[in-house]
Design goal:
The structure holds 3 protein chains of 3 kinds.
Chain A (H helix, E strand, L loop, with lengths): L1 E6 L5 H26 L3 H10 L5 H26 L7 H19 L7 H27 L3 H21 L34 H18 L1 H11 L1 H7 L3 H25 L13 H11 L4 H25 L4 H17 L1 H4 E6 L7 E3 L1
Antiparallel strand pairs in A: 1-2, 2-3
Chain B lengths: L1 H32 L7 H19 L2 H25 L4 H20 L10 H5 L8 H7 L3 H19 L1 H11 L1 H6 L4 H27 L11 H11 L4 H23 L6 H5 L1 H14 L2 H7 L13
Helix pairs in contact in B: 1-6, 1-7, 1-10, 1-11, 1-12, 2-3, 2-4, 2-10, 2-11, 3-4, 3-10, 7-8, 7-12, 11-12, 11-14, 12-14
Chain C lengths: L9 E9 L4 E10 L4 E6 L5 H8 L7 E6 L2 E3 L4 H7 L1 E4 L11 H9 L5 H15 L14 H13 L5 E5 L7 H16 L3 E6 L2 H7 L2 E6 L2 E6 L6 H9 L17 E10 L9 E9 L3 E5 L6 H9 L10 E3 L2 E2 L5 H6 L2 E4 L14 H9 L4 E2 L2 E2 L1 H14 L16 H14 L4 E5 L7 H16 L3 E5 L3 H7 L2 E6 L2 E2 L3 E2 L5 H8 L2 H13 L1
Parallel strand pairs in C: 3-8, 3-9, 6-7, 7-8, 13-20, 13-21, 16-19, 19-20
Antiparallel strand pairs in C: 1-2, 1-4, 4-5, 9-10, 11-12, 11-14, 14-15, 17-18, 21-22, 21-23
Helix pairs in contact in C: 3-4, 3-5, 11-12, 11-13, 12-13, 13-14
């Protein structure tokens, strides 16, 4: 018996949405094996990962809190990937958005201005856009591919943050900890639910879902984006400027990542520290693919990924497992997803050689 | 005398910093020459660094550590090959997945070894090094892996341009359809190239954890895998240019330490930006000439292959 | 069977090959004798390519038997085919652009032979058959004719006993084709069998002794092409009477709708062609045919006419009296330009988009309001195109990739014609489509001209250009010959211009002028 792949006449739409489910199932199996190999109880681990975080209101609000940056970053990344624009340095725009927004919060907070919160959010967006504008310029003007430039700039931004919190922005009363001063209360984002940490950033994230869907599905700009991504020669033929799309996608995703960055700070700790993200910008790439590069799908994928983060923290606390488990599981999930995706365009054909001509489709 | 010491120290440090870029970059160059873009170099290097370190501590043999690292890198590359070659998954996305997985997985398996002390390769070979003169001490830091990295570009040049296997590699990278029509097994050749790339990345990672700074730390590759990828573009897929680029980056990387040595009071964070900024600058310089890139890039790079047979 | 008679060189019995949606070959049986030139005839999509790939070992049949010189043989891969003595010259050449001629030949031989030794053997073969090739040159510098010679030399180096030629003349000038036939006849006299695939009937009559006709994956007829008429063979291929396009009476001389004046443009691709001093005028109601072998600047000329590349100055390209040289494709479309590109999926249409969105691709200017797409209206437009051009598709939601080449092209033509353009550019509009679709497409172009639009057709198919054009010009080496009235020129004359005689003439003129 031999297995072979045979192209489908048209892509199987059902597989587009079944594939993430299949990937999730395979990941659970993979996690079970992983923990068994590590000599830990897989059932307890799975419970800690996927069930325990959802058992309380507090857990659910934490889920929303972690899904917020993932969702914002992933919607931007996904729109870019639809245009074949690979912003894999959302982590960098996230960081710079947090820095610029925090600059506004630190400078103008505490004086009771009503506009401080809008201003710092705007500053976060502008910071993220500005950081993304560099790769956009390098791509459109000098043909330098954004995969590498956005990523390199992410490394640069993390050093920039380190420089600021160790140097000019360091809190003089911070007992020599590398961190900025605490934001004043009027520069902190309002909380949505009393007694939880879920802040209004979650609303922006939720809003990005319908807006992203309308952009991609109903507007000419969305059609341009999808055409540039699906068939660049067709886009050139239709007169859609690739450069304009590169700019649009990078500024949009940079702005969203920047917004995520400042929301994370102004809605969370209220100060900058050397590490402000557990890799949200990178995990958002997985979220984007898991959500089928579709904003509605990304909403669900971001919740799943947030659950993995929460569960990973739980594993650290209850089973003393390193936080790196989260990254391993994330990578595994993406592997399984990419593997399952083959079934969208191909079907598995089973050949039985001894009886020539008998073939079955699965 | 003092000046000679500085020159030797800079030259040695440059070569050592260039070594991982040279090894990983060369592996990726061969992979890309076969028409496959593997963005997972960073992940494969990290897995190589972790397994090389653990392997060495476990077996007590540096050689075993390096071999284990190469096998680990190749195994991760095999996952990449299975996804992109057999299952025809998107190469960019799969490469990113490889890196994300490699970062997490290496941290997971390496967690018990953080802070474990280890004698580096040079110390292991020359146990009485501390007794020698400073210049000899420096020169002895050029361990066998550095020498391998120095020879690699020449060997690669010979392989790609002078051997029949190199000719077939170039042919598959230019057009898998034509190669297939002529009867070459595109997938087998690409699998070999991908596995080789993974092994070289593993070796490069192990060099970092066994020689360059003999220890294991989470995420210790720190973007070198990505820089190696950029160097392949910079080299326009030519091994000798890759060597030049790697040396250039070695020099930039050690600028950090040199600045400290010369007593410059610049924030270490700002200096640490240099290699990344230099990568961007180099990419811009080389990519400006789109025609030249197009002319030299393997024409089938990144395109999936399915034989309708 | 007569025991004394030698077995045929190749015998196929019951060859069948199925793909997911189609049966490419069904129960195909025929024989090729020693030294015979055997034609394999059929429309695009009849299954010829699949069949020759099976013979050459690239594709494996699901059922059936191949007998080589009387012995049943399984041909595992092209190496095995070559070992038997089967050589193949592909329609789209199987050469690596970035490698040299000698390296390409070495790869095709599969033997470990030094490049130096090989160079000597190449010189010997190319001398014996008059096939000039330079072993040290890179393939990307070669013309299509030279590339074909490289492929043939590569086959001949293995002393083949069966040579498969897949549409070998589609890229040659008529004179080059004659030269190729001389080589093939000589090989046949030396005992080499030739399987000759083509849909050009006059060539088959001139060259072949036997013909097998395929239709929809089956053998439908066999004949002696020296006896059968072209009409008869065409009807065997399409399985019915040969339809004819009807050219409406041309209008009297209209106003200039497209003018190019002294346009020179360096190539922007590594192996592209520089355009040199191109001038042309196209008038309302007129069809201008541009003949030439692909790779002589067609792609570059169309790109600069359509606006995908900008001309050096605005006045170099004028659309309806407006200087348009610096405008992009969208702005030129607003001036009344439409364009049917050479590549269908990936350029003229997007494979994964539904037909509704493929209708939107170039017609978007009429279907947006405030940045939002009026999808309902676009869908009606797509439905109209499907109905008007009888596009076989599962509806407006069917993705482009689900259509056959001919139906996709009819849809694209419908979309471009449907916006009532003042000027229509058409690149190889019927290349690779079946006869019925080709006819519908030619008819649409002629109807559009009759309604008063100017139509510029770039094609390699001289018969087509002679059928529909009012004027014919030839593009060769990036230069455009002055247009001739179609009825005042001949295929031979156009063929000479395609072969680059124009450049010689121009050079002579330059010498005289000096």
């Amino acid at each position: 018996m031999r297995l072979s792949l045979e192209p489908r006449a048209r892509p199987a739409q059902a597989m587009v949405w079944l594939s993430p489910v299949l990937a999730a199932v395979l990941s659970v199996i993979g996690i079970t094996i992983l923990f068994a190999v590590l000599g830990r109880d897989p059932v307890q681990a799975l419970h800690t990962l996927f069930v325990a975080p959802l058992a309380s209101l507090d857990g659910l609000s934490e889920l929303g809190l972690k899904a917020t940056p993932l969702l914002l970053c992933a919607v931007g990344i996904a729109i870019g990937v639809r245009a074949d624009v690979w912003n894999i340095g959302a982590e960098g725009q996230f960081t710079v958005g947090a820095i610029v927004g925090s600059g506004v919060a630190l400078a103008y907070g505490g004086a009771g201005h009503w506009w401080v919160i809008p201003a710092l959010l705007l500053a976060g967006v502008v910071g993220g856009m500005a950081w993304a504008a560099i790769p956009a310029l390098l791509r459109t003007r000098f043909n330098a591919h954004e995969i590498l430039t956005t990523l390199m700039l992410a490394y640069v931004s993390i050093q920039l943050l380190g420089y600021l919190v160790h140097g000019p922005w360091k809190d003089p009363e911070g007992y020599s900890f590398p961190q900025t001063k605490q934001f004043e209360a009027d520069a902190m984002l309002p909380v949505l639910l009393a007694d939880t940490r879920l802040h209004i950033g979650a609303l922006f994230a939720l809003l990005s879902v319908p807006l992203g869907s309308i952009l991609l599905g109903r507007t000419l700009m969305g059609f341009r984006i999808r055409t540039v991504g699906a068939a660049p020669a067709a886009a050139r033929y239709a007169g859609f400027s690739r450069n304009a799309i590169v700019w649009f996608c990078l500024l949009l995703s940079g702005g969203l990542a920047g917004l995520a960055g400042i929301c994370e700070i102004a809605g969370g700790n209220g100060q900058l520290t050397p590490v402000i993200s557990p890799g949200y910008g990178f995990a958002a790439i997985i979220v984007a693919f898991l959500g089928r590069l579709n904003p509605v799908g990304i909403l669900f994928a971001s919740l799943l990924m947030a659950l993995l983060y929460l569960g990973g923290e739980g594993l650290q606390v209850t089973m003393q497992l390193p936080i790196a488990v989260t990254g391993t599981i994330q990578g595994m999930l993406l592997f399984f997803l990419l593997a399952a995706d083959v079934l969208i365009n191909y079907r598995v054909r089973v050949r039985v050689p001894q009886a020539a001509g008998t073939t079955q489709h699965a | 005398m003092h000046e000679t010491e500085i020159v030797v120290a800079i030259a040695v440090a440059t070569l050592r910093a260039a070594t991982p870029l040279m090894l990983a970059g060369f592996g990726e160059l061969i992979t890309e020459r076969s028409g496959v873009l593997n963005l997972g170099v960073e992940g494969m290097m990290l897995v190589g660094a972790a397994f090389g370190f653990i392997g060495t501590v476990a077996t007590g043999s540096l050689l075993a550590g390096f071999i284990i690292a190469m096998i680990a890198g190749a195994l991760l590359a095999l996952v990449f090959g299975g996804l992109t070659l057999t299952l025809m998954a998107n190469q960019v996305a799969t490469g990113l997945a490889l890196t994300i997985f490699g970062v997490g997985f290496s941290a997971l398996v390496g967690v018990k070894w953080v802070g474990t002390p280890l004698a580096g390769l040079a110390t292991a070979i020359w146990p009485h090094l501390s007794a020698a003169s400073p210049i000899v001490q420096q020169l002895m830091l050029l361990d066998p892996v550095v020498w391998i990295a120095v020879l690699v570009p020449f060997a690669a040049h010979w392989f790609i341009y002078r051997t029949r296997a190199g000719l077939i590699l170039r042919a598959v990278g230019e057009s898998h359809d034509v190669a297939h029509a002529l009867g070459y097994s595109v997938l087998r050749i690409r699998y070999l190239a991908v596995l080789f790339g993974g092994a070289m990345s593993g070796l490069a990672g192990a060099y970092l954890s066994l020689s360059y700074s003999p220890m294991w730390a989470e995420n210790m590759v720190a973007g070198r895998g990505w820089i190696a990828l950029a160097l392949v573009v910079f080299s326009t897929w030519k091994p000798l240019w890759l060597a030049l680029g790697a040396l250039l980056f070695g020099l930039v990387t050690i600028a950090q330490f040199q600045a400290e040595a010369f007593g410059l009071a610049v924030s270490p964070n700002l200096l640490a930006m240099l290699p990344y900024l230099a990568t961007v600058v180099v990419l811009v310089l080389i990519s400006r000439d789109a025609t030249r890139l197009k002319l030299n890039a393997p024409a089938a790079l990144g395109r999936p292959f399915h034989a309708t047979a | 069977m007569d025991a004394a008679a030698p077995p045929p060189r190749l015998r196929l019995s019951g060859i069948t090959k199925r793909y997911a949606a189609v049966t490419a070959n069904s129960d195909i049986s025929f024989e090729v004798g020693a030294g015979e030139i055997h034609a394999l005839l059929g429309e695009n999509g009849a299954g010829k390519s699949t069949l020759v790939k099976i013979i050459y070992g690239v594709v494996h049949p699901d059922a059936g038997e191949i007998a080589w010189e009387g012995r049943p043989t399984a041909i595992a891969d092209p190496n095995a085919a070559r070992a038997l003595g089967i050589g193949m010259v592909f329609q789209h050449f199987s050469l690596f652009e970035s490698l040299t001629v000698a390296e390409n030949i070495a790869l095709g031989l599969g033997a470990r032979e030094s490049i130096a030794a090989l160079t000597g053997r190449i010189a010997e073969i190319s001398g014996r058959y008059g096939l000039a090739v330079t072993p040290s040159r890179h393939v990307h510098h070669l013309s299509v004719g030279e590339r074909q010679r490289v492929e043939i030399v590569r086959c001949l180096l293995q002393s083949p006993r069966l040579l498969i030629m897949d549409e070998p003349t589609s890229v040659l000038t008529p004179q080059e084709a004659e030269g190729l036939f001389d080589v093939l006849r000589r090989l046949s006299r030396e005992g080499c069998s030739i399987l000759y695939i083509s849909h050009k009937l006059e060539e088959i009559k001139a060259l072949c002794e036997r013909a097998t006709v395929l239709r929809a994956g089956r053998v439908v007829a066999a004949c002696d092409p020296r006896v059968a008429s072209e009409q008869q063979m065409a009807e065997m291929m399409i399985g019915g009477a040969l339809p004819v396009a009807h050219r409406p009476a041309p209008l009297k001389e209209g106003r200039v709708c497209l003018a190019v004046d002294g346009l020179s443009l360096p190539a922007d691709e590594p192996f592209g062609t520089n355009l040199r001093d191109i001038s042309l005028t196209l008038r309302d109601g007129e069809i201008l045919g541009i003949a030439g072998v692909a790779g002589n600047g067609q792609k570059e000329l169309l790109a600069v006419l359509a606006g995908e590349r900008r001309a050096p100055d605005a006045a170099a390209v004028r659309i309806a009296d407006t200087p348009a040289g610096l405008l992009g494709p969208a702005a030129r479309r607003r001036l009344g330009l439409a364009f049917i590109p050479e590549e269908r999926l990936g350029r003229g249409a997007v494979a994964e988009f539904p037909l509704t969105e493929n209708a939107l691709l170039t017609a978007y200017q009429g279907f947006t309001r405030g940045g939002m797409v009026r999808y309902g209206a676009v869908q009606r437009y797509a439905r109209d195109i499907i109905a008007r051009f009888r596009v076989v598709a599962a509806g407006t939601d069917a993705p482009g990739s689900s259509l056959s080449g001919g139906n996709m092209q009819k849809f694209i033509v419908g979309r471009e014609v449907g916006v009532n353009p003042r000027v229509l550019l058409a690149a190889h509009p019927t290349w690779g489509v079946d006869i019925g679709a080709a006819l519908a497409i030619r008819q649409a172009l002629m109807d559009l001209a009759a309604a008063g639009s100017g139509v510029l057709v770039v094609s390699e198919d001289l018969a087509e250009l002679f059928e529909i054009s009012d004027y014919i010009a030839v593009l060769s080496g990036g230069r455009l010959s002055p247009p001739r009235r179609t009825r005042e020129t001949t295929v031979e004359e156009v063929g000479l211009l395609m072969g680059g005689r124009m450049a010689d003439a121009a050079a002579r003129d330059a010498v005289h002028a000096a």
